[in-house]
């Protein structure tokens, strides 16, 4: 009984930003539990290669800029028509910025908020349109940085964007509950992905590990397994939750 509640057999999942890193780990976990997955990303070469690496055509790829509301609407409608439903959405598309606030240009601020926060909302809204008749699960990839201002990096735009994601998740969970749509967020700590490494000095890594009680960075597959749980019926009474998975960082 309990094992069956974790199964996602033949459910249709969309994973934005699923071509690499945490997103790709999520795709892998969902496939292992039986889902058919559509990767939606702007990294066409990486997305197509990642989709092709899975057997039996269980994973496909579509180009999608999550900041383009019209493109999001058209893409989700097309996915629902081609696959018959959208049962799971995971919003993993995201970018970071580590500039000090006094040096941060308006365009950089706007871009981080547009991808991380606004893009999450557009995708959640359109997925919900196609879940209304049968219910579904939406899982946003937030961050512990949406709950606290972590150091030593300066990332006000990123922190603000993830805080917005967390509160949007709580708001949408209430709004969509009557349609049987659950909305939750996973808030990772430091995870060893290429996005995390971009432009990061070595001393930051040392500091992150030192400040994390478990003494290491997380692995993408650890995030993927939690997302798969939230997507499944095993989490059927969870909605509006922001689940920290940070090696104890926020417990200090």
Q: Mind explaining what this structure looks like?
A:
By secondary structure, the protein is α/β, with parallel strands linked by helices. The chain has a single domain, classed as Rossmann fold (3-Layer(aba) Sandwich). Helices cover 44% and strands 15% of the residues. The protein contains nine helices and seven strands. The chain has a seven-stranded parallel β-sheet with strand order 3-2-1-4-5-6-7, sandwiched between helices. Helix 2 (21-32) links the parallel strand 1 and strand 2 (36-41). The chain is globular and about 50 Å long. The model has no long low-confidence stretch (mean pLDDT 95). Belongs to the short-chain dehydrogenases/reductases (SDR) family.
For the secondary structure, the number of strands is 7
Percent of residues in beta strands: 15-25%
Helical fraction equals 40-55%
Radius of gyration: 17 Å
- Mean pLDDT over the residues: 95
Class computed from helices, strands and strand pairing: alpha/beta
Q: Helical segment tally? A: 9
Provide the CATH topology.
Rossmann fold
Question: What gap, in angstroms, lies between the N and C termini?
Answer: 37 Å
The CATH level-2 architecture is identified as 3-Layer(aba) Sandwich
Shape: globular
In the CATH scheme, the class would be Alpha Beta
